[in-house]
Amino acid sequence: MAQPKKLFIKTYGCQMNVYDSSRMEDVLKPLGFETTDGPEDANMVILNTCHIREKASEKVYSELGRLKNIKKKRNDDNEMVIAVAGCVAQAEGEEISRRAPYVDMVFGPQSYHNLPEMLAKAHRAGDGKGRGILMTDFPEEDKFDFLPDPVKPEGYTAFLSIQEGCDKFCTYCVVPYTRGAEYSRPVAHVLKEARQLVEQGALEITLLGQNVNAYHGDDGRGGEWTLGRLIRELAEIDGLERIRYTTSYPAEVDDDLISAHADVPQLMPYLHLPVQAGSNRVLAAMNRNHTREEYLEIIAKLKAARPDLALSSDFIVGFPGENDRDFEDTLDIIRQVGFIQAFSFVYSARPGTPAATMDLQVDKAVANERLQVLQKLLVDIQTKFNEDCIGKEFPILLERVGRKDGQLVGRSPYMQPVHVEAPVDLIGQIRDLKIVSARPNSLGAELKGTAAK
């Protein structure tokens, strides 16, 4: 038998990229690849890149320089194929090929189903100094139609991509240019993959999309399903205990989705709903298509449907033109909603986006000072939420062994890591645990009947 080839994928950025990386593994497994923990012994290395943050491309080039040195030491019998995938590849494919000619293939997030074809071309090209294969056009075919069935997920949680692309064109964002137009997978395809994941052991599935609640999947009978309708059907799958979805767009939160939060017990009481800013003036400049008042009205409806719902969000500080009053409006909306987690960043200009050329760019020192104030407020709210959990019982999905002997780690319905002393045979079970301690980023719990006497 031929020796298996080693594959190493380094994933940057969002959960969509995590899903894409796992599907690349699925595509390459029939070709004899098995994953390895680092590039040193890999026959193929894929950098699955993200283009959202400033200096994202430079981080990629820095990593490519390291891979170049590893590749130089290889002989013909132990070649290394270097590939750059994802959003940086989509946005800067020709530039990558020019600056790093030793890279063998560059392909965007809609093209990785063509990996077998690209590998065949790479091997036919020979010499191993860089084959220059570039595939960054948006293909007409749906990549999901060409992907194999998903391989058994690691652990008891799984991602399931149901929607890709974005038509919203927020002025700071590159996603419409790197991921393309909004596309929803057909209902039958989503349900099939979900059932396969559950059969393979997944207890929790997170539905993914750039704007996941813009889902409008073809039902095969001339109609379309909303995300709420899809969630209700997924909840009927025997063995699927938990459902989550991310990332949502506020203007796409409809009444059907809100009612699903009330009607579907498997839908977790935790929602990531990015607001980005609390100032109507800044929201308009961002082209977010909602006001602060509309956002707060959505939150009120969601909490009326599910009173125990908690929220997380994204914030951009120092957007062009943001003044002190605008920033105070953002702090105010944080206090009103009480976000228990958040991703927050200083605005960074992305080439080609409208915001990059706007007047009144905010001084970096001012923006960084505002970010520190905002993050302190967020940490204070998160810490208080965790402390308020003490004494409550939550169903915890126990996922893995912890760092300490006899310790297991799981996740609460609110995505908090939970540590508990428990036997290893409870891994893969959902147990009601009493919360007995809290830290800013995690909780401690105990099994019923194990409290100190």
Write a concise keyword list for the protein shown above:
453 residues; alpha/beta; Rossmann fold; Transcription Regulator spoIIAA; 4 domains; six-stranded parallel beta sheet; five-stranded mixed beta barrel; 21 strands; 33% helix
User: Level of helix content?
Assistant: 25-40%
- Kindly give the count of domains: 4
How much of the sequence lies in strands comes to: 15-25%
Strand order in the sheet with the most strands: 2-1-3-4-5-6
Structural class: alpha/beta
Number of strands: 21
Computed Rg: 23 Å
Largest sheet: 6 strands, parallel
Output mean pLDDT: 91
CATH topology of the largest domain: Rossmann fold
Oligomer: single chain
**Uncertain stretches of 5 or more adjacent residues:** none
CATH homologous superfamily (4th level) name of the largest domain: Methylthiotransferase, N-terminal domain
CATH architecture designation of the largest domain: 3-Layer(aba) Sandwich
Give the C-level CATH assignment of the largest domain: Alpha Beta
Distance from N terminus to C terminus (CA atoms, Å) equals 59 Å
The number of helical segments is 12
